[in-house]
Design a protein that fits this description.
CATH topology of the largest domain: Rossmann fold
CATH superfamily of the largest domain: SGNH hydrolase
Low-confidence stretches: 245-252
CATH architecture of the largest domain: 3-Layer(aba) Sandwich
Shape: elongated
Largest sheet: 5 strands, parallel
Mean pLDDT: 84
Structural class: alpha/beta
Distance between the termini: 75 Å
C-alpha cells in the first residue's frame, strides 16, 4: 500500500508539473516577481557589438531602415533590395522594449520608410501578447515623424511543435497561438494608427506555421525565406511614393 501511495504521489506530481508547464504558470509567476532564472527561458544572446556599431556608424541618412531583432539582423538588406538606400538596424536577441531603447539611432537617420518587426523575443521571456502590443505601440509612436512612413510587420510564425506534452513550447515559449494573438493586436494597431501593414506571414507561413523549407531551427529563416520576404518588401515600398506620410502623422 505504501508503494502504491508513493507511485500515486509521483504520478500526481508529474501531472501537476505538466499542467503548470503547459499553462505557462512558471513564466507568469517569474515575470510577475521580476525573476527569470536562466533555466526558465532559452538562451538569449543579444548582439551587443551590433548595437554599439549602430551608434557609431557614420551614416547620416538612409531612405529605408529595416528595424528588428535577429530575423531582421541576419540578412544583408542592401543585397536583397538592390538599388535601394537601405540600412539594417536589426539586433539579434532584442525585445521590442530593447529596440525602443535605441530608437534614437534610427531617428537620426531621418528615414523615409521604417519597416518594423519585433516581439518574438518578448514572448520568449514570458511577456503576454497584451504587454508586447503595448510596447510595440510605444515603438511605433516613437518613430512618428513628418518625413517617415512606418511599415508594420507581424511576428513571423514558428514551426510546428513536434515534441510531446508541449514541453518545448514551455522552454522556448514561442507558441503560434500566442503569436497569432499578438499579430491580431499589431494589425489592429496599424489600422488604428493608419499605418501600412505588410503581412509577411501570408508569404512565409500561410498555414499559420513555418515549414521546414523556410526555417533552420523552427524560428530563424533559411535563405529562400529571405528572398520571399524581400520580394514582399519590394512590392510594399513600390507603393509608397516619395514624400508620402502615414495617415496618423498627416492628420496630426
Amino acid at each position: 500500500m505504501a508503494r502504491f501511495h508513493l507511485l500515486l504521489t509521483v504520478f500526481l506530481a508529474a501531472l501537476l508539473c505538466v499542467v503548470a508547464l503547459e499553462s505557462e504558470l512558471p513564466q507568469r509567476v517569474s515575470a510577475r516577481l521580476g525573476l527569470w532564472p536562466e533555466i526558465m527561458h532559452p538562451q538569449r544572446d543579444i548582439d551587443a557589438v551590433a548595437a554599439d556599431l549602430q551608434r557609431l556608424y557614420p551614416t547620416q541618412h538612409a531612405d529605408i531602415v529595416m528595424l528588428g531583432d535577429s530575423l531582421t539582423a541576419e540578412a544583408e538588406w542592401r543585397e536583397l533590395l538592390p538599388g535601394r538606400d537601405v540600412v539594417n538596424r536589426g539586433v539579434a536577441g532584442q525585445t521590442a522594449a530593447e529596440i525602443l531603447a535605441r530608437i534614437d539611432d534610427v531617428r537620426r537617420l531621418r528615414p523615409r520608410i521604417v519597416i518594423i518587426m519585433a516581439g518574438i523575443n518578448d514572448l520568449s521571456i514570458g511577456q503576454s501578447p497584451v504587454q508586447v502590443a503595448a510596447t510595440y505601440a510605444a515603438l511605433v509612436d516613437s518613430l512618428a515623424a513628418p518625413e517617415t512612413t512606418i511599415l508594420v510587420q507581424p511576428v513571423i510564425h514558428v514551426a510546428h511543435d513536434r515534441d510531446a506534452m508541449g514541453l518545448p513550447r514551455f522552454w522556448r515559449n514561442r507558441r503560434n497561438d500566442k503569436i497569432a494573438e499578438l499579430n491580431d493586436k499589431i494589425r489592429a494597431l496599424a489600422a488604428e494608427r493608419r499605418l501600412r501593414f505588410l503581412d509577411v506571414n501570408a508569404t512565409l507561413a500561410p498555414t499559420g506555421e513555418l515549414s521546414d523549407e523556410m526555417t533552420t531551427d523552427g524560428t530563424h529563416l533559411r535563405a529562400k525565406a529571405y528572398l520571399l520576404w524581400a520580394e514582399a518588401v519590394e512590392r510594399a515600398i513600390e507603393g509608397i511614393p516619395s514624400g508620402e506620410r502615414d495617415g496618423r502623422t498627416t492628420s496630426g
